[in-house]
Amino acid sequence: MDYVSKHMEKWSKPNHSYYVKFGYVEVIERTSNPYGSVLIISPWNYPLQLSLMPAISAIAAGNCCVIKPSEYTPATSELLEKVVNQTFSSDQLVVVTGDAQMSKRLTILPFDLIFFTGSQQTGKAVLQQVSQQLTPPVILELGGKNPCIMDETGFSTAAIQEIVWGGKFLNAGQTCIAPDSLFVHVTIYEKVLSEISKSLLAFYGAHPADSDDYARICHRSHFQKLIDFMKQGDIWYGGEYDEDTLFIAPTVITDIEQGSSIMREEIFGPLLPVIPYTDLQSLLSENEIQRDALTAYMFSTNKSNIQIYKQHMRSTCVSVNQVIHHAANPHVAFGGIGGASGHSSYHGKAGFKACSYNRTNYRAFHYLHVPDKYPPYSDKDMNVVKKFENGLYKR
Questions:
Q1: For position 230, what pLDDT does the model report?
Q2: How far apart are CA 295 and CA 326, in angstroms?
């Protein structure tokens, strides 16, 4: 918010340019303009942040907003509704609570821009719904199976701590940019598994259910999906769970069954599959890696391998030797590239641009009347124009 407030006057400033043509001068003013009304449908995994971050972009660009928070986080939604609706006038920013039916009712209204963050399945439903209204832009922030590769040069205790902290166990793995699976070069595989166990023990103790720093699964249906995933390989570490409290321990899974859904679907929980590989090029060619994932991670000091990975991935962010930090940097555009990861980007200037459109104000000043621009035309007229343009561009 501080960053956007500091820069939005500069981003909003009109841009002027002048062009000399044959017989007239063009004066072009380009301005950024708000779409008008913006509907923000936010998810349950970061219910406060992912409601207000899009609103910051939309309001900075001059729009008014309606926020529809997730019904799966009723306490946060209630607080958000109370604070926002008491602070802002309803024609500026308003929070509307309700279930999925409320979202459907909102998406058929004539909003000028819809901003959705959530699952691929719900994102498809939103697109189908708004297509009937021909709502101009729809920003989709989804997710996908963000790959994380550690080659034989990438191992260190700090690297493992980075992956364990932000990769899979921050917010109990319910983070759209968390590394979904960790692919480890076979020469360091056992060492990586051992170091992951040490880091988990250091972070959350022998009984993570008692840790003040470890989260719970947000709702029951997602909890059951994660338990089903857990059964598709061997438990290296963790595996404990409690359905009453929606607790699932930090869990490392090895020897995944071929064709398992855990390797096809986004996990979105505290389960980390660790998979050995022998050759980077072969790994990338086997289609185990989702090329358009929201973020692609790599831990390596090998410049050649890093370059190969960058060229292979289509993700809007390829992050080397760090996890998650880029999403907190307002200089970095955050968003998908299509397919499972969504499309369009926001944060910082990218958010301002996503929530506004460019308009051209055009004006011409005539310094010479040119009757030969009207029919009938002749070769002589064309030669005059060519000579003028040649002289203009040589200067």
A1: 94
A2: 10
Q: Counting every residue, how long is the chain?
A: 395
Torsion of CA 218, 224, 229, 231, to 10 degrees: 130
Q: pLDDT by residue (tens digit) across 348-363? A: 999 999 999 999 999 9
12-56: per-residue pLDDT in tens? 999 999 998 888 999 999 999 999 999 999 999 999 999 999 999
The answer to whether residues 352 and 4 touch, using CB atoms and an 8 Å cutoff, is: yes
- The answer to whether 177 and 253 are in contact (CB under 8 A) is no
Residue with the two structure tokens 């060492």: 191
Which two tokens mark 345?
């980007």
Distances (CA, A) of 5 to 49, 61, 65, 267, 349: 17, 11, 17, 36, 11
**Looking at residue 5, what DSSP letter applies?**
H
**Beta bridge mates, 362:** 28
The pLDDT value recorded for residue 393 is 61
> Residue with structure tokens 């398992």?
260
Determine the straight-line distance between the first and last CA of the chain, rounded to whole angstroms. 46
Nearest of 291, 323, 295, 318 to residue 306 by alpha carbon: 318
Q: Are 292 and 342 in contact (CB under 8 A)?
A: no
- Characterize the bridge pairing of strands 296-299 and 318-320: parallel
- Cα–Cα distance for residue pair 112/94, rounded to 1 Å: 16
Alpha helices in the chain (DSSP H): 2-12, 49-60, 74-87, 100-107, 120-131, 157-162, 189-204, 220-230, 280-285, 303-312, 348-354, 379-394
**How are beta strands 138-141 and 113-117 bridged, if at all?**
parallel
Question: What global pTM score does this model have?
Answer: 0.91
Active site residues: 141, 176
Please give the order of strands across the beta sheet that includes 356-366. Answer: 15-21, 24-34, 356-366
What pLDDT score does 394 carry? 62
> What is the C-alpha to C-alpha distance for residues 303 and 310, in angstroms, rounded to an integer?
10
> 157-161, 167-171, 184-188 — which is least confidently predicted?
167-171
